[in-house]
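Batch job 17 of 40 flagged for manual review because the log was empty.
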Amino acid sequence: MTGPRLARRLPMLREFLQQEATAGLVLVAATVVALVWANSPAGDSYVRFWHQELTLGAGRLAVTEDLQHWVNDGLMAIFFFVVGLEIKRELVTGELTDRRAAALPVLAALGGVILPAVIYLLLAPGGEAARGWGIPMATDIAFAVGILALFGARASPGAKLLLLSIAIVDDIIAIVVIAAFYSGAIHWGWLAIAVLGLLAVAAMRQWVPSPWAASPWAYVPVAVVIWFAVLESGVHATIAGVALGLLTPAHPVHGRPVLEQLEHLLHPVSAYLVIPLFALANAGVDLRGGILGDALGEPLTWAVALGLVVGKTLGIGGAATIARRLRVGELPGGMPPAQLWPVAALGGIGFTVALFIADLAFTDPALIIQAKVGIFVGSIAAAILGFALLTLLSRGTPRASGGSVAHP
């Protein structure tokens, strides 16, 4: 991305990264609370609380889930809707619209997806454990940006933009993987209803008079129907959120910037409420009674951990380096080449989506615990590695000027 183009995006980028950096701290706090709660004398209450069942709706339209699954299947649809909005923005008006600018983050993300999956499959045992190959593919942008935030202006705006772009491409791949490999048996009737609902959303922009066509509230009833239909279809319900996000117009409708307004409204809800609740509901692994030691002795744990810290670092950094050498991609304007490898290492912080896929991949509680321990170990190691590389390679790097994304 050229300097002038980057400058035009700085205000929105600054706001987004500020929220992500703060969200990373909230996410850490929620994770610590979950772990302390699950390993305290009141640890049984953690399991009882999140396994309480809640029924919404009535009759054939009733949905009964425990609280953990209401968070994972229901509230996480908001998170994936915001992800869909971010993807749509980047594809239409952002970094991924320019083929040359998009080439490097796309290739880097592909390297950071393929190599972790290969490492996982080489190290993990067979059987059900082999289904976890998608776990180390994800990057948690909130945690990663939080590390970059510690460096203030020494971490260039281009480095932050590259990390964000890689994470967005990573999210696209993760969504495809979840839909294709981690959904259940497909019920085509319900899926057809979901598709009809999506077509209705697309048609409403053309046929519903202004100002209703530009009001997000007009689409909420249809969105609920789509979510329910996707849930019943066997495709994971959060895919409904992604699809609705991608259908959101990136250009103003009747003079109203719908996508920007929705992002401004829902990104804080996702970052400060949905994701911390997800961490609280899913990160509480009981590690007492030798469980931690047992997990650290299992190959699946290290398949996840090494997939994240080694696979992501070498996959992202290696693919980006090759793209630059072959001149098929370029770093964002103003980004020092030395900051590529720290960004690659921070891409190995794969917390939220990695935990999400772990619960989709396995039914055996022992495998879930091993995967989650691997996620904790790998993400912490990637954070330390990224911090160390950024500290080492940023020495002597001039602080960005006032137009930069300083102190996100």
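Reviewer: the log was empty due to a logging misconfiguration, but the result itself is present. Residues 3-38 form the longest helix (36 residues). Unflagging and moving on to job 18.
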